[in-house]
Amino acid sequence: MPGDWLREQFSLDEQVAVVTGGGGALGSAMAHGLAQAGARVALVGRRQQRVEDAAAEIAATGAEAIGLPADVHDEFQLESVRDAMLAQWGRIDILVNAAGGNIPGATLAPGASFFDLPIEAFHEVVDLNLLGTILPSQVFGAVMAASGRGSIVNISSMTAARPITRVAGYSAAKAAVDNFTRWLATELARSHGDGLRVNAIAPGFFIGEQNRALLIDESGELTERGQQVVAHTPAGRFGLAAELAGTVVWLCSPAASFVNGVVIPVDGGFGSFSGV
To answer: 244, 265, 266, 248: which is closest to 256 by C-alpha?
Structure first.
C-alpha cells in the first residue's frame, strides 16, 4: 500500500544515530527528529547535564536515547562514546555533526576592522567547526565504513556561500565544511560503496544560545542585525529548530539512498534573495 511504502522510505527503525552538539537547540531538535523516525540516538556534547537532559526529553516520548559527554576535539573522548554505543546497541549507522558555532572573540564588534581580528580566535572558530566535524567523522565513520553502510550529515551554514559581515572565521570554517562534505562523500563512496553517504545541511538563521544576543534584545525585540536578517529572508522570520528535523531524517533514510555529496539549504529563501 502507498502508506506502507512511504513509511518504509522514511523509516529509521533499528538504526543507531550519534548527534554531536546534542545539547544545543539545533542538535537536540535533529536528535528528536531522528528518534521519532525510529532511530536510537546518542546525544554528545561537552556539558554532561545538557546532553543528559536532552536525552531524557527524547526518552520521555517513548524513544530510546542516551546522553554522553565528550568534546569533539578529543579523539579519546569520542572513542569512549563510540565504544559505549557499540556496547549498548552494537552498531552505528548515522552521524550528525551538529557541534560548532561562532565564538565572541571571532566576531568583529560594530565598526571594528578586520585587521584587529585576533588570529587566535579565528583559529579557535575554524577548529571548532572544521576539526570538530572531521574528527567525529573519522571515529564514528570508521564503524560505518566497516559495515559498508551509513549516513553522515554535516552542519554547514548559509554563511558558507554568502559571507556575513563580522564573522569571517565562521564563514570560512563553514565553507571548508562544505568542501570537506563533497570530498568525503566521494572518498567513502569510491572506497566503501554506495551504501555510505555524506551530505550536509546549511541552515539559515535560527535562534540559539550563541547568536540570541546578536539578533534579539533583552525586551524580545529584533536588534538592528536581526532586522537585517529578517528583511533578507523571504519567509520573513527566523527558522524554528524543529524545521531542520525533516531534512536530516530524509538524508539519513532510504528515501535519500542516491543523494550524496550535496549541501541542502534550510533557510527560508535567504540564499535565493538578492536583497532588492
So the answer is: 248
